[in-house]
Structures are given as C-alpha cells and as structure tokens.
Amino acid sequence: MDFTSYIRFVFALLFVLGLIGVLTVVLRRYGLGIASAQIRKGQDRRLRLVEVLPIDGKRRAILIRRDDVEHLVILGAESETLIETGIPASQMPSSPVPSSAEPSARTPAQSFAETLDQAGSPKT
Length: 124
What we know:
By secondary structure, the chain is of the alpha+beta class.
C-alpha cells in the first residue's frame, strides 16, 4: 500500500465517525436517543439526597427526599432496607442553630443514629 491509500483510509474513517456523530445529535434532538428522559437541573429536581450517615464499615443510612416526602433507607453491601417512608419534608434552617423554640429539633437520620448508639448496631 502506498501513502495515498493510508490518507484515503483516514479520511474515510473520519467521514464515517462524523456521520455517526451527526446521526446521534439528530436522534437526541428529536427524542429518539438513548437518554430520552430529560434531566432536571437546579431547584427543579424532584429527587434529592438529603443526608448520609455512616453506621459502620458496611452500612449507611440515607435520607432521600422525593417531592415533599422523605424516605429513610439503610444501604448495605448486599442489601437495601427501607426503614421509614412518608416522612414529611422539613425545611432546612438558614443558620446552623434551629430557629424553633424546641431544642430537640432533629432530623429522622439523627434520631435513627441515636437509636443505634443506644441499642447497638442492628444484626444482619
């Protein structure tokens, strides 16, 4: 093979890759691409990770907010356990000190962590 054959091969490869790229852009533009669901950005999101609390080396408690409801889940190495669902979403105070007069305003994850500290780690 001579040098012109290599050049033709490179241009043909670039042309085919360009066609694939253009086809991908066109398919995504008309909603036919792989990621057809729109990803919401900023404050418009419905699903949010509120808090993560490590329990031990293998497990952690996570608090997930969907719309205006929070769910407490334990994630382990081989399993997931739903602890509590339907928790009304609380508004986070702007300052680190709770604005309510009640000094025991705690999140469900903090209450769960204190329960684990008092009773010991749950057995698996």
